[in-house]
From TrEMBL:
A Pfam family this chain is assigned to: TetR_N
Record-linked InterPro entries: Homeodomain-like_sf (IPR009057), HTH_TetR (IPR001647), Tet_transcr_reg_TetR-rel_C_sf (IPR036271)
GO MF annotation, one: DNA binding
Name of the featured protein: AcrR family transcriptional regulator
Keywords: DNA-binding, Transcription, Transcription regulation
Domain HTH tetR-type stretches: 7-66
DNA-binding region, residue intervals: 29-48
Gene3D superfamilies: Tetracycline Repressor, domain 2
């Protein structure tokens, strides 16, 4: 009897799709995904119903990880809501300046997937709404006079940092965004 020690086909597909879609975009071919995961085509359809389901599941997993990163970053900044929100931009500076940064996988997926009914769009919308609520909760704790609007503005700054970081490397967009975030928080 042989005992499996490595990940199964489902996990290998998820890991391959996570890496390849970040490096090459969601348009990466099925054959490349299957080759990277070392699985048969049947596994893709059995586990995910096809490439669309695989992409949606990869995004679901990464949104959970990224949301946890926001929470860890904010907790590490202490109890002051202002410091917690500004810490997000300090963390973005690290991410954008890190090796292998290729931009925001969610923005890239939304732009590349022309079908508005693609299941990935629901995942990215839900993720952005959770991050927005996270910001809004902190803004309420801060006593901001317009927490919903300010949360929208902060989310726009986050999107801008991730887009500019990918398209204009070496420009440190998080520094400028942090300065703008200070104005939003002080309004």
């Amino acid at each position: 009897m042989t005992t499996r020690t490595g990940p199964g086909p489902r996990e290998r597909l998820l890991e391959a799709a996570r890496e390849l879609t970040y490096r090459h975009g969601v348009g990466v071919g099925v054959d490349a995904l299957l080759r990277e995961a070392n699985v048969a085509r049947r596994s893709l359809y059995e586990h995910f119903g096809g490439k669309d389901g695989l992409i949606a599941e990869v995004l679901r997993r990464t949104t959970a990880e990224d949301e946890d990163d926001y929470l860890r970053t904010m907790r590490a900044a202490g109890e002051d809501p202002r410091a917690r929100l500004l810490a997000v931009f300090d963390r973005l500076a690290e991410i954008v300046g890190g090796p292998g940064f290729r931009g925001c996988r969610y923005l890239a997926a939304d732009l590349a997937l022309a079908d508005p009914g693609h299941p990935a769009h629901a995942v990215t919308r839900d993720y952005r709404e959770r991050v927005r609520r996270l910001f809004e909760d902190e803004l309420v704790r801060l006593g901001h006079r317009s927490p919903g609007r300010a949360a929208d503005q902060l989310l726009l700054l986050v999107d801008g940092v991730l887009a500019a970081g990918a398209t204009r490397p070496g420009t440190n967009p998080a520094i400028s965004a942090r300065e703008l975030a200070e104005h939003i928080l002080d309004a």
